[in-house]
Amino acid sequence: MTTLTDTLAAIVGPAHVLTGADLDSYEQDWRGRVRGRALCVVRPASADEVARVVRACAAAGTSLVPQGGNTGLVAGSTPDATGTQVVLSLRRMNAVRSIDPQNMTFTVEAGCILQTLQQVADEAGFLFPLSLGAEGSCTIGGNLATNAGGTQVLRYGNARELCLGLEVVTAQGELWDGLSGLRKDNTGYDLRDLFIGSEGTLGIITAATLKLHPRPAAQLTAWVALASLEDATALLGLAHQHLAAGLTGFEVMNQFALGLVDRHYPQLRVPMWREHAWCVLIELSDNESEDHARAQFERLLETAVEQGLAADAIVAENLKQAHDLWHIRESITLAQAEEGVNVKHDISIPVSRIPDFVREADAALAAGVPGVRFVNFGHLGDGNLHYNIQAPAEGDAGAFVAAHESTISTIVYDTVSRFGGSISAEHGVGELKREKLPHHKSPVALQLMQAIKQALDPQQLLNPGRVLARTP
């Protein structure tokens, strides 16, 4: 009798159907929170092979888990524990199919590493502005499937805003070619937006046509120390006034977060953190010249000091200094891991309400779970905080998180809802937030989402149990 793995091997080649010990890295999520067990990993090399794999799995009644770089933070791309699911790895599909300089787009396959696409765009004389900590290993298909954000959303938007068209394999194994480079197409429902952010539950993204942007003539970075989060939000408003569309990044970091980086990576030389409660990174991209950019920055910072918003500031003198400052920001997550087990929250709040949210959430957690330490950082410019909780310095961090994680997250998410925010800003829902979603999402919205899932994937073939609970 021909088994499913035999059928898959006939489609993609025996070398690209993995079993046994070869599955290990595909079955563990990046954070080490979830480990599953797959029937096999299949690695197609083309959209046609993806479609044939989906049809074979549909015929066998076997569900698929699409996986890109496996860098997600909500356990959305690892198999369950049954040993019956097929992990569909798209890493072999890593071609840049075409670049259209006049249309300022390129068409790329889902398995392309994000950093590689940044380099391809740069070599062609353009900027592809999607940028995040995992860019050296995450793939563009996963970025689109989760509608990834990152550090330049303030200027360029999430992954959704950078995508003009998609190629998608449906749950029935049909191939939809929507790789349009059009910026205007008003001919019905926007299928592209339906698949972006769906976390592989509605279709499998195999390629995308993405926007390119002009490279800035100059890019400068400033590190500013402040006394309060209120000062940070006021400085953001001032930066909008002075820099306008040139403001491409505005990151906030609290003292404890920077202290963790200083403790675990002292070679990074974190500036100003001991004397100030908050620091921000500001990035300016200028289309004229470095002199023009530096003059704009100087006027902004002088005004900020005059108004009592900035306690101290430095402007990077060269690209290496700028990179070093950004490396500090990107090292916070790694420093948290070095410190021990922690509870992560990727939330969004209207910018104007963030200081009050942090004050209220901090107080509620300090009262409800004494000893917690607050690692608060993120993309203040677009209202996205990584409001993370570190276990107390003393004791067993793992046991503490196991005992209190549910309480901590309930307090945080309830506070988020009171402030009109979202419990997931850029990481998605996956498995880890699935049970929380019904408490913080409109019942009507959930009904519509279930109806879409039922219409597009009635067999519950694609990434079942992610975002939405499985239906009987």
Would you mind describing this structure in some detail?
The chain is of the alpha+beta class. The radius of gyration is 23 Å and the shape is globular. The model has no long low-confidence stretch (mean pLDDT 94). The protein is built from 16 helices and 19 strands.
Work out the number of β strands: 19
Give the helix/strand class: alpha+beta
The Rg value, from CA coordinates, equals: 23 Å
Q: Choose one word for the global shape.
A: globular
- Portion of residues within helices: 25-40%
- Main beta-sheet annotation: 8 strands, antiparallel
* Mean pLDDT rating: 94
Number of helices: 16
Indicate the proportion of strand residues: 15-25%
Low-confidence stretches: none
Query: Distance between the terminal alpha carbons, to the nearest Å?
Result: 30 Å
Q: Secondary structure elements and their pairing?
A:
Layout (H helix, E strand, L loop, with lengths): L3 H9 L4 E2 L5 H4 L10 E5 L4 H14 L3 E4 L17 E5 L6 E5 L4 E5 L4 H10 L2 E2 L12 H6 L7 H4 L6 E8 L4 E4 L12 H5 L7 E9 L1 E2 L3 E9 L2 H15 L3 E8 H10 L13 E9 L3 H17 L5 E4 L3 H12 L1 H8 L2 E2 L2 E3 L5 H15 L4 E7 L4 E7 L6 H22 L18 H4 L2 H14 L16
Parallel strand pairs: 2-4, 3-4
Antiparallel strand pairs: 1-2, 5-6, 6-10, 7-11, 8-9, 8-10, 12-14, 12-15, 13-14, 13-18, 16-19, 17-19, 18-19
